[in-house]
Amino acid sequence: MKNIFLLGALFFASVFTIGQNQNNWCGTDSYMEQMLNENPELREEYKRISKMGSETHIPNISSRSIRSSGPAQYKVPVVVHVVHDNCLGNISLDQIQDGIDVLNEDFRRLNADTNATRSVFQNVAADVEVEFELARLDPNGNCTDGVVRINDPSNTYGANNNVKDVSYWPADSYLNIWIVNSVRNSGGGGIVLGYAQFPGGNWNNYGIVMRHDRLGRVGTSVSDGRTLTHEVGHCFNLYHTFQSGCGGNCSNSGDRVCDTPPSANSTFGCNTGQNTCSNDTQGPSSFTTDVVDQIENYMSYDDCQNMFSLGQKARMISVLNNIPVLQSLTSQANLVSTGLVNFSESVCKADFEINITGTQPSGAVCETGKPLIACVGDTVSFFDRSFFNPQNFDWSFEGAQPMVSNNANPKVVYTEPGTYDVELTVFDSLDSASVVKSNVVKILPRVGENVPFVESFEFSEPAIDKGWILDDFSQQFGWEVSGFDSYTGTQSLKLNNFFSSGAGEATAESPVYSLENMDTAFLTFKSAFAQRDGSFDILRVEVSTNCGRSWSFIESLVGPILASTDPINAPLNNLTDDDWADNSIAIPSQYLSPNFRFRFRFQSNGGNDLYIDDINIEGTLSDSVILISPKLADTDVSTSPELNWAAARGDEYEIEIDRVPSFNSGWLQSYSQPVGLGLSTSPDTRRQLNNLDSATTYYWRVRVVENGTSGPWSETWRFTTAPGGGATSISDNQQDTEISMYPNPANSRVVISGIDNPGSIRVYNSVGVNVINKVANSGSDQYLNTSRLAEGVYYVRIKTNNTTVTKRLVIAR
Q1: Helix 93-107, helix 227-235: angle, nearest 10
Q2: β-bridge partners, 177
Q3: What dotted CATH number matches 627-721?
Q4: C-beta neighbour count of 722 within 10 angstroms
């Protein structure tokens, strides 16, 4: 048998080390050891607190044994901080409440397995007479459901005390519980399920950190929910039953409680015959003979836990009665201020959850800073998560059908792309509450912008308005469109990573593109990244063809492969051309879809910032033409419409328009025009029509001719012109003389004047690659920096609200 005597300072020098085990699912011992090593001045305070519950501190607790039918003597207000990763780990209120229910059952000796307590321990099994309840008023006096939800991937994995800086309520008013995806293991092997701080020390850290899959018995839980019971025991000054080994007598062995027989070490097998110490009768023990280990105790590691002892109850009640912070926590005044007593549960807050119909709602509001993403025609479901107990509902849906609803959980359909607000007002017989969530739904087109294209991030609008969905979290971690450094132009896509905690993931999701006019396609981009101190960050490229509901991996750039320059332990900036790397990733043919999206998923491991610029999708165009607009069955079309189609491979486009779908009437109009830039944004993929008859249906189709051989005709689309003719569109050349560009030929700078409305300027090289993007401002000259362009012929496309002009530019030096 192992005999260890721990007294005074010796106890605090070694007790938490002794309590550790190579399969240590409770991280409290290693946490406390680290804290005391870093703050040795706290040892005296913890030594004093550790004595609470000895004979001189035990209050007059009756020996009622199994359970009490009376009310709890102490109530504890609880706040649960759910720190999740883009909703992963954002557990439901039902699961949280179930976790509190388990805690109350265990502390009140109301658990269903009390009959599993062996007879030798039945007379010392205790109703602790402490209950826990989610707070109903927050520190500012506002109503709450007792749950704070924070989207912070950088702090929800390998969580330690850093997570407590993300969200915290005062410890003298609330017992703080932080729910995370995983807990850092700083001592021994195995998976840590949770850890707690003993009373004392820095009260801003007081509480429990634990995994979401160990809370309660429902939802994501894979356990009986007793991890929380165990950790709250630590918060109330209980040690592990094996904490001090066998020791000399019951006052300084095991958990230092005399009706809990000491254990020599942690065990996991529920061996009912297990007896690892033979000194159970020594000291003021409750036992007259040596007994088996109390494996059913909540402070053991065994899986058959079902009891606290009367001595453990005395130890817990002692700290509640004698430590000022805990006295305040359980005081009547605090129960009033946190809403546990004298609180009327009327409607006080409106809130809701959103998801795509057909997917399982989480039962929790998930605020990620990003909108819900859906496509035109998708059914979107809304779930009321208001509190408390609303009876009537008044929903308003911008841009949806229906636009209003009185159902608690309505469903709507969005028919046009855009970013939309949602408003909810809830009522009961006395009160009402409202919430407006702006830009909470982002609807993408079913068919995206045709490619090839280049994105250089030279825009002034918010990224979401351009179709980019970026994760941007706290702790200086996340994506942004930045003017800090770029390869071309003045802006790039930047992943802020240097000052982050070195954990978590962040994604940057693209708009929708149509790749159905491609036979082969490649995603290319420039990137700049440096490792730091051997970091091993990962950039994954994933694609989706279902509006982002699911993503498929196609490539990853890891550590030194991602790095484009030498390691540096300072923020990466002031980039030169040599700091950038070229990346080309083949897009598998199964993803050449009209609803194609890609995303960059960055997994941080403490490296530097990442820059991405000049994203391009290019490849081999198909010889089949895809029509774009006017759309099939469009009505009220101008009598001077512009036909628009996706670029195809070939030498010449043939266009036909007729009043009959067989294209054999005497009115048939046929056109041909050369294939030019090979871009769907180029003039060669458009045809201006003029002076069509009003209120008339027309049919049109396009095909490509390559080496004298005609390809297949496109689908036949029809449109109907508006009565009276409608508005007349403006061709590329009608406003050409009003916009000037000089010098031409040019060297390093080009001036464009005469732009009368805001818009955009794009420059394409001779093979159709977009090499410059610039926001066009009205009323002033625009300057293009062409110093990086090679000599040759370029095309400058100027697009504003009411005109599109394409000009030929020559760079010569």
Answers
A1: 60
A2: 80, 208
A3: 2.60.40.10
A4: 15
Instruction: Specify whether 461 is catalytic.
Output: no
3-state secondary structure of 18: helix
The three-point CA angle 22-28-34 to 5° equals: 90
**Class assignment of domain 736-811?**
mainly beta
Q: 687 phi and psi, to 5 degrees?
A: -140, 120
Q: What is the pLDDT of residue 52?
A: 81
Q: Which residue has the tokens 């894979």?
A: 222
SS3 string of 591-628?
Answer: HCCCCEEEEEEEECCCCCCEEEEEEEEEEEECCCCCEE
What are the start-end ranges of the H helices in 447-594? 559-562
**Could you say which of 129, 133, 231, 509 is catalytic?**
231
Ramachandran quadrant class, 730 (left: phi over 0; alpha: psi -120 to 50; beta: rest): beta
Q: By the 8 A CB rule, do 677 and 646 touch?
A: no
**Confidence at residue 62, expressed as pLDDT on a 0 to 100 scale:** 44
Fold of 8-57+76-334: Collagenase (Catalytic Domain) (3.40.390)
Task: Break the chain into its structural domains and give their ranges.
Answer: 8-57+76-334, 352-444, 449-620, 627-721, 736-811
- List the CATH code of the domain at 352-444: 2.60.40.10
Report the run of H or E that residue 155 belongs to, with start and end: helix 153-156
330 is written with which tokens?
């359980």
Q: Do domains 352-444 and 627-721 have the same CATH topology?
A: yes
The three-state secondary structure class of 762 is: strand
Q: Which two tokens stand for residue 370?
A: 């990003």
Mind listing the pLDDT tens digit for each residue in 178-221?
A: 999 999 887 666 789 999 999 999 999 999 999 999 999 999 99
Low-confidence ranges of the chain (pLDDT < 70): 1-24, 53-69, 187-189, 358-359, 474-475, 677-682, 725-737, 766-770, 801-803
Q: What integer pLDDT is reported at residue 57 of this predicted model?
A: 41
State residue 419 phi and psi, 5-degree precision.
-115, 125
